[in-house]
Write a structure and sequence with these properties.
Layout lengths: L1 E3 L2 H19 L5 H21 L1 H5 L3 E10 L2 E6 L2 H27 L5 H20 L3 H19 L5 H32 L17 H18 L8 H4 L5 H10 L1 H24 L2 H21 L4 H22 L2 H32 L15 H15 L5 H15 L3 H25 L6 H15 L10 H19 L7 H13 L7
Parallel strand pairs: 1-2
Antiparallel strand pairs: 2-3
Helix pairs in contact: 1-2, 1-5, 2-4, 2-5, 4-5, 4-10, 4-14, 4-19, 4-20, 5-6, 6-7, 7-8, 8-11, 10-11, 10-14, 11-13, 12-13, 12-17, 13-14, 13-16, 13-17, 14-15, 14-16, 14-19, 14-20, 15-17, 15-19, 16-17, 16-19
Length: 516
């Protein structure tokens, strides 16, 4: 049943209004007002999004049309199960990331904080718009809006390196976005609709194989760039010049997840499994994902900078989602959608740990972090937990998603993909566990770390010898780490995101479900 309601639109627009208020009130004289607006908008957005979950679980959809853009194409919002998963993750983590951002920005004495929080809010508005877009044109509008809104965050430091990275980011994302739009226009002309439909609306054989494959590649390119599929990943490591909360936003909440979600929409809600398989698009996408998983893992192993290592980890982990989708099996699609959830909590934990370490100790290179666990035990423990989850060990969220992707590949008769996923898990251990080993190893810089930590302690805690990161950073880290553990033990805890993944996969494939 379709429920006509303004709720989806309100969930999108609330952070746009927040951005305007932040710019108006949030000058450096009144930072508390700016931060209060940020947190209030984050909570209101999450309440709106999560309030719609029960109806979607019951098989209903909220729908709201703002206006008709062109004949037969509306600027409209619909809350299907797949979109609800992405919206829940983004809105929930915006609260956590906002708290962390306040601690990071104050602790590191960052400039341009008002612009940062305003752009951050617009990014979240764009992300919810992408989640709830009812058709390709609405999706494209918010997809490009996310690109533009993220640019000020990438160039936050306003130096030559940041500007170069920003130009590279825009070149990759805007060009691919225009190719995506060309494919959207062609699809509308040929099929007379842009409305997302579970299982797709393109019929196999409706056009020539070559034309269908060309449309697919043009459209999927927009998602492949933001998802960091090699060789279209070059912007992502460069964007690591931004502050760590921005890196967390890029890698866990907004941009790369929007790219993976774009792949999901194109494959499963535009072309559908039958048409994607008929023109051979699924195989092309799968092998690009396999190459990305393996190559990014080997590159990550060689990076000494912690954020750079995590960046290449993200490139590989996002291709798990792409591979799960391209297998075109109910279990693998379920696993791919739940990996949006699992990877979000695990990777944001890792990036927030990296940021907390940098603010508290001034260290960014792994080789300089020996013995760090003595000074920051909770942060290092959370990093270790998230590292095991990224590798897919049992009792952590990453295991649930990867198990389903592997099961789907086995049922689909694709054992080679299973071997790749198992190898990738071992590679993930090989580039993350050595970091944990360094944390708990010996240090020849303990006096330097202790001195920096004492300065931070006097600022935040009012006493010398402050242990671990400041509370505004440490509490969000602990929350996301604990959620990663809870979702590994009880995937349906809270808003039943695993059930939503199963519902979405069944609607795409016509049944089959999945198990933990």
């Amino acid at each position: 049943m379709t429920i006509l309601s303004i709720k989806p639109f309100l969930a999108v627009v609330i952070s746009l209004l927040a951005a305007l208020l932040i710019l108006f009130f949030g000058n450096n004289v009144r930072p508390n007002v700016r931060e209060g607006i940020t947190l209030s908008a984050a909570v209101i957005k999450a309440v709106l999004v999560f309030s719609m979950v029960p109806a979607v679980l019951a098989g209903n959809e909220y729908y709201f049309c703002l206006w008709e853009i062109v004949d037969g194409v509306e600027l409209a919002f619909r809350t299907d199960a797949a979109g609800m998963i992405f919206a829940c993750v983004a809105s929930g983590l915006w609260i956590v990331t906002s708290v962390y951002s306040i601690g990071y920005m104050r602790g590191h004495h960052e400039k341009n904080q008002t612009g940062y929080f305003a752009a951050f809010a617009v990014c979240l508005s764009s992300t919810i718009g992408i989640s709830f877009a009812a058709n390709l044109l609405t999706f494209f509008i918010f997809y490009e809006m996310l690109t533009v809104a993220t640019y000020p965050l990438v160039v936050h430091y306003r130096d030559d390196k940041a500007r170069a990275s920003g130009r590279k980011y825009l070149a990759y994302t805007l060009i691919s976005g225009q190719l995506f739009f060309a494919a959207v226009a062609a699809v509308y002309v040929i099929y007379g609709t842009c409305e997302f439909k579970a299982g797709g609306f393109i019929d196999p054989g409706s056009v020539s194989t070559g034309l269908m494959l060309m449309l697919f590649l043009l459209m999927i390119g927009g998602g492949a760039v933001k998802a960091g599929i090699m060789p279209l990943h070059g912007w992502l490591p460069s964007a690591m010049v931004a502050p760590t909360p921005v890196s967390a936003l890029l890698h866990a909440v907004a941009v790369v997840k929007a790219g993976a979600f774009c792949v999901l929409r194109v494959v499963c809600y535009v072309f559908g499994p039958e048409a994607a398989g008929w023109c051979g698009a699924d195989k092309i996408l799968a092998w690009f994902a396999v190459a990305t998983i393996l190559l990014s893992s080997f590159i990550a192993m060689r990076k000494d900078n912690l954020k750079a290592r995590l960046a290449f980890s993200t490139i590989g982990q996002l291709s798990y989602i792409v591979l799960g989708i391209s297998v075109l099996a109910p279990y693998s699609i379920t696993g791919a959608m739940f990996h949006i959830v699992a990877h979000a909590f695990l990777k944001i934990t890792l990036f927030m740990c990296a940021g907390a370490i940098y603010v508290t100790t001034g260290l960014s290179e792994i080789s300089t972090m020996g013995g760090l666990a003595k000074k920051m035990p909770v942060t290092c423990a959370c990093f270790g937990l998230a590292s095991l989850g990224i590798a897919g060990l049992p009792l952590l969220a990453g295991f649930v998603s990867k198990f389903n992707i592997i099961r789907g590949a086995l049922i689909a008769g694709k054992p080679l993909f299973v071997a790749v996923l198992v190898a990738a898990a071992l590679l993930a251990l090989s580039y993350l566990i050595p970091v944990v080993r360094v944390f708990f190893g010996k240090s020849d810089r303990s006096a330097e770390i202790s001195g920096h930590a004492q300065t931070v302690g006097e600022k935040y805690g009012g006493h010398a010898g402050y242990n671990d990161a400041a509370p505004a950073m440490l509490i969000p880290i602990v929350i996301t780490a604990v959620v990663s553990l809870v979702l590994g033990i009880m995937p349906d805890a809270g808003p039943h995101l695993y059930d939503l993944a199963v519902i979405a996969a069944e609607s795409i494939s016509g049944g089959g479900g999945a198990i933990v």
